[in-house]
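Researcher: Can you fold this with zinc ion in place?
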Amino acid sequence: MQIRFESSPREVPQMNTDTLRENFLVENIFQPDQINFVYTHYDRVMIGGAIPVNNILQLETYDALKSQYFLERREIGIINIGGRGHISADGTSYDIEKLGCFYAGKETQSLTLASADAANPAVFYLLSSPAHQKYPNQLFTKEDATPVTVGSVETSNHRTIYKYIHKDGIQSAQLVMGLTVLQTGSVWNTMPAHVHDRRMEAYCYFDVPENQRVLHLMGQPAETRHLWVADRQAVISPPWSIHSGCGTSNYSFIWGMAGENKDYTDMDAVLIPDLK
Ligand SMILES: O=C(O)C(=O)C[C@H](O)C(=O)CO
Ligand SMILES: [Zn+2]
C-alpha cells in the first residue's frame, strides 16, 4: 500500500508537474481482481479501488493499520461506478447497482466485493477514515440520495449532486461522501470554488470518455496549480486547497471528506475574480 504524507501550502507552489502528481494524483487503484489503497496522512483517509472480475475480493487489513481486521477502528464508504455488484458484510448480502453507495461501520469484521457479471464487472471506489464510534451498515441507491441540480448551462456547470453519507443522510463517525454528474455540454465542477479547512477532500473522476481529460485545479485560491486527470483517477485535496475541475467533455466524480464535521454546507466560498 502506498503512503502519502502531507504537503504544506508553502511547499506546493514550488512543485513541478511530476512532484505535484506524485503527491496529489492517485493513478492505478482500479485493477482487475485486486483491492488497492493509497493511505494518506490527510485525516488518515484511505483511497481505494477494486474490480472483482473472476474472484470475490475480501477486504483485508494492512500491516500499517496494526489492526486485526480492516474495519476494527475504521469506517468505509463504497460507491459502484461499474456494472451490478454484490457486497457482503458480516454475512448480510447487498446488491449494488451503478452509482449505489454502501456504508460499512466500525467493527464490521468481514466484507467482500463481487460482480454480478464478469463481462461487465462492478467497479468499486472505496474511501475509509478512522472511526471512534460504530454506525449501522447501510445501502443507498442514487434515488435515496435526494439529488439536487445546481449550476446552469450558461455557465457550463449544470450538474446533479447526490449526497449519500453526510449529516442528514447515511450516518457515519466522520466520513462524508457522494457524487456529482455533469450534464451533457457542461464541463465545470465546483465553480465557484471553495475551501473547507476543517475537512480534507478526495475527488475520483469517472465516466470520462476515452481520450478526454479533466483539468483539476488545486492550491490556495490566489496560488492555483493544475493536474490533468484521466478516467478512474483520484486527486487528494488538502483542507486548505480549492478542488475544482474543467473537462474536455462532461464527466462524473465521487467526492469524499473527513475531518472536523459532517456538514456538507460548511464551505468557505471563493469569488471567481479572487482566483489566481
Ligand atoms: O459539483 C460540485 O460543486 C461538488 O460536487 C462539490 C463537492 O461536493 C465538494 O467539494 C464538497 O465539499
Ligand atoms: Zn469541497
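Model: Folded with zinc ion in place. The domain at 2-274 is CATH 2.60.120.10 (Jelly Rolls).
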